[in-house]
Amino acid sequence: MNLGWVVNLVSPSNPTAQVILITRDAAASVNPDLSVEVDDVDAAYEAVRATGAEIVHPITDEQWGVRRFFVRDPNGKVVNVVSHR
């Protein structure tokens, strides 16, 4: 996948091995520092909300086939939590 601002590189022999390069997040007001893919982003969202952590990008269905949200960790880093639809 190459949207110009984000490129997803996937191993042809192991599709679960991926590297995503982001120059800027064109779909959010903040750039994430890292991404974590989870099986159930809605469950992760509810678990994170229950801790009182700062959600910096609401849970969103993106045009390129993912559902995601951003949370700020205790060190101030922004984590993109994502699942493929």
TrEMBL record:
All residue ranges annotated as the VOC domain in the record: 1-84
Name of a matching Pfam family: Glyoxalase
InterPro entries with a match to the protein in the record: Glyas_Bleomycin-R_OHBP_Dase, Glyas_Fos-R_dOase_dom, VOC_core
Residue ranges of the TM segments: none
N-terminal signal peptide: none
Superkingdom per UniProt: Bacteria
Name under which the protein is recorded: VOC domain-containing protein
